[in-house]
Design goal:
Layout: H1 10-16, H2 31-41, E1 53-59, H3 65-71, H4 76-79, E2 83-89, H5 94-108, H6 114-132, H7 138-149, H8 161-185, E3 189-193, H9 198-205, E4 212-220
Antiparallel strand pairs: 1-2, 2-4, 3-4
Helix pairs in contact: 2-8, 5-6
C-alpha cells in the first residue's frame, strides 16, 4: 500500500487495489478524500448520461455508522471501516435528468447544425421516456415491439423492466469502481459489499421508496491481515477471446 504522497500510475492502481476487509482504526484518515473521490465518480460513464445514481456517506462519526455496519451482516469490512459509502440507483428521477440533458443540449448545440440538435433532443423527448417510463403492461409491450422490429433490422432487445434495472445498476457500478480507484490513488483501501439487509438499510438511511442499493463500500487504511491471501484470477485465456 502506497503512502498518500506517492502517486502511482493507472496500472499500478489496478494491480494494487484489493478488497481489504479489515481497516486500521488508529491511522489518520482524511474524510475529505472520500468527497473528492465521489466527485470523481460522478464523471464515470453512464447510460444516456442520465446519472440515475446517488451516493450516501456514513463516516465513523455518524450515529448511523454502527447500526449500518450491523446491517452489513457485521462484516469486518463494515465494522472497521472509517467511512461507509452507499451506492444507490434512482430510476424515478429519469424525468428530472432528461429535462436537465435537454437544457444542456439547447445550450451546447445552439450554434450548431439544427438537425443535430433536433436529433439529440428527440432522443431525450422520445426514446428516453419509452425506456424508463412505467405503465401497466408497458414492459411486455416494449419487448413485443423490440421482437417485431428485430425481425428486419438490428434492434436493442434489452427493454424490459428488469433490463432497465440492470442498466441502472451497471452505471452505478461504473461509478463505484471509479470511486474505488480514486481512493486507491489517494493511498486508501476499499471493500465493496453486497452482503447487507437492503430493506433495513433503506429504512435506517431513510432512502426514497424507489431507491435500490447497488453496493456498500467500506473505506479506510487497510491492515495486512485485511487482505485474505494472494489475488487469484483464472487464466486470461479462459476469459479473453478474439474473433
Amino acid at each position: 500500500m502506497k503512502g498518500k504522497t506517492d502517486k502511482p500510475g493507472f496500472f499500478d492502481i489496478i494491480n494494487e487495489r484489493r478488497s481489504v476487509r479489515i481497516f486500521d482504526q488508529e491511522s489518520e484518515f482524511d474524510h475529505a478524500v472520500v468527497q473528492k473521490c465521489l466527485e470523481a465518480a460522478v464523471l464515470a460513464p453512464n447510460s444516456s448520461n442520465m446519472q440515475l445514481w446517488e451516493f450516501y456517506r456514513v463516516p465513523e462519526s455518524s450515529k448511523l455508522k454502527a447500526p449500518l455496519s450491523r446491517l452489513c451482516m457485521g462484516q469486518k469490512a463494515a465494522t472497521t471501516a472509517r467511512e461507509l459509502v452507499v451506492i444507490v440507483t434512482r430510476r424515478k428521477l429519469w424525468k428530472i435528468r432528461a429535462k436537465a440533458n435537454l437544457a444542456y443540449i439547447r445550450e451546447c448545440y445552439k450554434d450548431s447544425d439544427p438537425k443535430k440538435q433536433k436529433r439529440a433532443m428527440s432522443y431525450y423527448r422520445n426514446l428516453v421516456p419509452k425506456f424508463y417510463a412505467k405503465y401497466p403492461f408497458w414492459s411486455v409491450v416494449k419487448q413485443v415491439i423490440a421482437w417485431f422490429v428485430g425481425l428486419n433490422r438490428p434492434m436493442v432487445r434489452q427493454v424490459s423492466g428488469c433490463d432497465v434495472r440492470v442498466s441502472l445498476h451497471k452505471s452505478a457500478a461504473l461509478a463505484a469502481m471509479t470511486f474505488m480507484y480514486g481512493m486507491q490513488a489517494e493511498g486508501y483501501d476499499t471493500c465493496p459489499m453486497e452482503g447487507f439487509d437492503s430493506k433495513r438499510v433503506k429504512k435506517l438511511l431513510n432512502l426514497p421508496k424507489d431507491a435500490e442499493i447497488n453496493m456498500i463500500i467500506g473505506c479506510g487504511k487497510g491492515l495486512p491481515e485485511g487482505v485474505y491471501g494472494r489475488r487469484f484470477r483464472v487464466a486470461n485465456e479462459e476469459v479473453i477471446f478474439e474473433k
